[in-house]
Every structure is written in structure tokens, then in C-alpha cells.
Design a protein that fits this description.
By secondary structure, this protein is an alpha/beta fold. The chain is built from eight helices and 15 strands.
């Protein structure tokens, strides 16, 4: 059984905070975080460079404000026993001018367990704001699964999203200044991992492994709350859909199954630690989508070798 993860992700409508200084954004963020304290989230996600959502990009005290904000967020994560995604600018070593666009990833103890530095910066970031692009696409292990990050303009480069799949990410958090649109759903479906967005606009989302948006914010309240299970797996219907009723009869509410006719797939989520998905697959003889494709690819290669093209072809 996978860990059920309570996610709280923010869409912080920039139109409501326009003109605020970084100093004024700090209590605004604190108030937003306090609004989800009673939800007891496992994971809280804030948007890209959130201290600047009011438009105060060149505050001379920015490094001090980032340091103070980070200390407060570490305390919040420790008190709430949650992971926290804190995207802020980070000083470039040895320079008072250069900086990174960074996600600070905090664990339940409030410790910084890793950073992701935006790899694909836009022109204005480098030329105007003196942001240095990052170089690595790391993943991080949590007590509920493996996660990774992308930031805003990274959405336009497929290699980063593929690298996260290759490294075993089950959840990718995309923090941004804008909504992102259907590319996020496409990446989630193609790579078969969850995508959670947190944006400076208003349409934050939680997207499942089929590419469907399962929770989203609105223009008048951008907070997204959802409970997800990163162990959920996808299955093709071929040679398997006949077994769905047998699984339901045997396990009842110990399992959650959703079937999707247009894509010819179904998902299985375990609700009982005695019935992890590996056991369900073995007991009922079902093969997950990735293994099914691997089987088909192997068979195709074998048949091409067995039956080569004839000269006249």
C-alpha cells in the first residue's frame, strides 16, 4: 500500500498583491500557510520566486529577506511535520549581483534536504535579473515517494521531464509565474507520474498519472487541496479488463480502480497495507502498463529478427 499524501499547493493571484514589497509579501505568505495548518498537509508547495509576486524584483535587502523567510518556513515545516517547497532566489557564491532561481526543499524536520536550480532561464532573467541557469535535474526521496522539480520556462524542454522519469520520480512539482496549460497534463500522462503545479496566477493543479486534473484552484481562491497515492499504477485493458470485477469482488474497498474507455486503460490504488500492488499483480495476474509495453517491445524485436525484410521489400 502506498502512502496517501495530503497536498496543499497555492495559486497566489498576482493581481491581488501587485505593488507589494518583498517585506510586505512575507506576512501575506505566512497568512496563506496558516490557512492550511488545520488540514495537516504532508506537502506544501509555493510558487516560483514567491517573494517577488508583488513586483518588487530589485529589493536591496533581498538576501536578508530570503534568509529570514527561509528560517520561518523551516520552523513551519517542523511544527506542521510536512515537506515544504520554497522557491526563492539564491545568491550565487562570491557575487553580490548574480543569483539562482532555486527551489529549497524542506523535510518534516525543517531541514533543507535539497535544491533545484532552474535550468532553463528566460532572456529577461539572465540579462535583466542576472540569474545563472542551473545544471542538474535531481530527485529526492521522501517518506511517501520520489519527487522532482521543474520551474516555469523548464516546461518547454522535454529532456528535464524525461530525466525525472528516468530517475524514478513519482511526483513532479512545477512552480511557475503562469498557469502552464495542457502541457502539464501531457507530461503527466506521457511519463505516468503525478504533476502538482503552484503558480503566481490562479490555476494551480494536481494532475494524476493519466493526465487528468483531479484538483484545481480558481480565480477567487487559488488553493488546491488533494490526497493522492504515488503508488497508483496504470494498466492497459488488453488481456486484463476481464479481471477487474474479480479484483473488486475479492478486495472490496481495499482497492480503488478507475477505468478509462477512451485510452483503454485502468488504474489501481491499494487501500490496505496487506495488499500492496505487487501482491495484487501477482495474485490476479495483471501486468502494469510499463511492463506491458516492455513485453510488446521485446516481442516486436524478436519478430523482426525472426522475419527479416526480403530483398524485394
Amino acid at each position: 500500500m502506498g502512502r496517501k499524501v495530503k497536498v496543499a499547493s497555492f495559486g497566489l493571484n498576482q493581481r491581488w498583491v501587485g505593488g507589494k514589497t518583498q517585506e510586505e509579501i512575507v506576512p501575506f505568505i505566512i497568512d496563506k500557510l496558516e490557512s492550511v495548518r488545520g488540514y495537516h498537509p504532508d506537502l506544501v508547495v509555493l510558487p516560483e520566486a514567491f517573494l517577488e509576486i508583488g513586483g518588487d524584483e530589485f529589493n536591496p535587502r533581498w538576501q536578508e529577506i530570503v534568509s529570514d523567510m527561509l528560517a520561518w518556513l523551516r520552523r513551519y515545516a517542523r511544527e506542521m511535520r510536512c515537506y515544504l517547497v520554497a522557491p526563492m532566489h539564491e545568491p550565487y557564491p562570491g557575487s553580490d549581483e548574480l543569483r539562482f532561481n532555486t527551489v529549497f526543499f524542506l523535510d518534516r524536520e525543517g531541514e533543507i534536504i535539497g535544491k533545484y536550480r532552474k535550468v532553463h532561464t528566460v532572456y529577461e532573467e539572465s540579462i535583466v535579473n542576472h540569474l545563472v541557469p542551473g545544471r542538474e535535474i535531481p530527485v529526492f526521496d521522501t517518506d511517501f515517494g520520489r519527487v522532482g522539480f521543474q520551474i516555469c520556462f523548464d516546461i518547454g524542454w522535454r529532456d528535464g521531464w524525461q530525466a525525472l522519469e528516468d530517475k524514478g520520480a513519482q511526483l513532479v512539482m512545477w512552480v511557475s509565474a503562469y498557469d502552464g496549460g495542457n502541457l502539464l497534463n501531457t507530461y503527466a500522462a506521457h511519463h505516468m507520474y503525478y504533476v502538482v503545479s503552484s503558480v503566481r496566477s490562479d490555476h494551480a493543479q494536481v494532475i494524476d498519472i493519466t493526465g487528468r486534473t483531479v484538483a484545481e484552484g480558481s480565480k477567487w481562491n487559488g488553493l488546491v487541496l488533494a490526497t493522492i497515492d504515488l503508488e497508483t499504477r496504470l494498466y492497459h485493458k488488453d488481456r486484463q479488463f476481464q479481471k477487474i470485477d474479480a479484483i473488486r469482488r475479492a478486495l472490496g474497498d481495499k482497492v480503488t480502480i478507475h477505468a478509462y474507455s477512451e485510452e483503454n486503460v485502468f488504474t489501481v490504488e491499494s487501500n490496505d497495507p496487506e495488499w500492496p500492488l505487487d501482491r495484487i499483480e501477482q495474485e490476479f495476474g495483471i501486468m502494469n502498463y510499463k511492463d506491458y509495453h516492455a513485453e510488446a517491445t521485446k516481442l516486436q524485436e524478436e519478430w523482426r529478427e525472426k522475419y527479416p525484410l526480403l530483398p524485394e521489400d
